[in-house]
Amino acid sequence: MKDIVKILLSEAKLPASDAEIEAYTAAYAAQRASVDALYEVPEARYVDPALRFRATARLDDWAS
Amino acid sequence: MTLPKTLTDAAAALRDGTVTSVELTQAAIDTADRLDATIGTYLARFDSYALERAAKADEELARGEDRGPLHGIPFGVKDILAMAEGPTTAQSLILDPAWGEGKDAPVVARLKAAGAVITGKATTMEFACGMPDAEKPFPIPRNPWNPDTWPGGSSSGTGSGVAAGMFLAGLGTDTAGSIRIPAAFCGVSGLMPTFGRVPKSGCVPLGYTLDHIGPLARSARDCAAVLEVIAGPHRSDPDCVDAPFSAPELTGDLTGLRIGVVREHHFPDDRDPALDSTFDAAVAVLTEQGATVVEVTLPYWQEMITVDMITMGSEALAYHRGDLGNRWGDYFLATRAMLATGAQVSGADYVQAQRVRRVAQDAIGRLFETVDVIACPTTSVGAPSYDSLTGPDGQPDIGALFSMIHTPYWDTVGNPVLVVPMGFTADGLPLSLQLAGPAFGEAKILRAGDAFQQGTDWHLRVPETVVEGAAA
Question: Read out DSSP for B331-399?
């Protein structure tokens, strides 16, 4: 499990310390299981995500 | 002279001539002089600016130019929102000091237009997440009820500042509970508005689809007054809809209001011993005010905890990845841990989270067809001691902390939630009640919260440190 976490962090270019990798690894299995459980929600099988793209959107400076 | 404790009482006193804005502001400054070094409320104070604004407010009110209930009120702003009078730091070494320089976030501009007297920028957890880091050159926020405990976060300074009397209201932000947690631990009220009610541009982002800006203040009535000012669309935030807010009539009568009470997940074995009786008493007050109560459960509870983690981690990592690679050590320890979760999920995981999120939104919408308000504890314990925030390995123990905090669910579904003080632990630390409503149903939760506060005085309790100092 530690190797997986190290690879994921490395691929994201996050230079975590050994102590941090140990801590993240300790939490990873439960975290991964909770993420995988989202794919087991049957009601979500044919549901669109809460994401929307707007073709007319422009960047708008909030302070201008 | 005894100064009003609430924003709305102060607004009335300003108009009947029993207090001036300069007196309110000077009292707030005096309190900050006395307590800020201990409880770390401010990152930046604008004393001179505030006194000038207060004098102007007094002049305007004297000649009948009334800008509404925030006019002349000392007010704090979390230092993750841009304000022209000072730099925004997000309590971080990372954020470019030029970000937002000389500009007001739309919500800050609305506060200024309403005549609020902004006294300074309040402390936050770094980038509105994580925990304090003593290794970094920023104040450690402490709880006015017991400085050995955490005031909650991430809107730490806004919570402690209201509790201590450094301002009568302030702005916070909430992505997983950052308005409601400090409000709960500091014994004040806080309102997370519906996602899209308040424009969030001009706020350093944490989770683009989760961030909410809202008030912390002593009372539900105060929160309603602030929401009236900051709500409404802004061209720069496409998520913000055309839904201005008008405070409902607050009569204290809850006749006809249906309240769903949630116990599942909120009463873990290691909860505070006072939680059960305190929560039951709070529900009883709501019943006495006329509400009818039924027991309900929250659909997709565990899934939404996971969705908040995936969504916040992914959205925040996208924002921070470049800096993380180059300046890892400049980030707070707990910020790094939160951001690293974004690297441990895939793009498909993120999209699946948004699909399940949609399912949960629909389910909670159907639940709100059967009840008007949902009530549950905000946390299962009072403010934790600083010693307890770190695990035996020296790493922040975020998992243990959030097993006692019941806020992230509501960020994912986007519904509004009001938190109000409901009593104390045996150690004298505040406990808090969450009142959630249907999307854009702030009027219902504010009506319930105000009725609760008409029947109780928990929201008016002041920490001993404040009382003793004021008497000295």
Answer: S-HHHHHHHHHGGGS-HHHHHHHHHHHHHHHHHHHHHTTT-SEEEEESBSSSPPBGGGGB-TTSSB-HH
Long-range CB pairs of B388-395, under 8 A, 24+ apart, other chains included:
B389/B131, B389/B132, B389/B150, B391/A23, B393/A19, B393/A22, B393/A23, B394/A19, B395/A19, B395/A20, B395/A23, B395/B333, B395/B337
In tens, the pLDDT along B15-63 reads: 999 999 999 999 999 999 999 999 999 999 999 999 999 999 999 999 9
CB of B103 less than 8 A from some CB of A? yes
Q: What is residue B309's predicted lDDT score, i.e. its pLDDT?
A: 97
0.90 cut: is pTM over it? Answer: yes
CB-CB neighbors (< 8 A) of B328 in chain A: 14-16
Chain A residues inside the 8 Å CB shell of B342: 12
* CB contact burial B194-229 (16+ within 10 A = b; e otherwise): bbbbbbbbbbbbbbbbbbbbbbbbbbbbbbbbbbbb
Interface ipTM > 0.95? yes
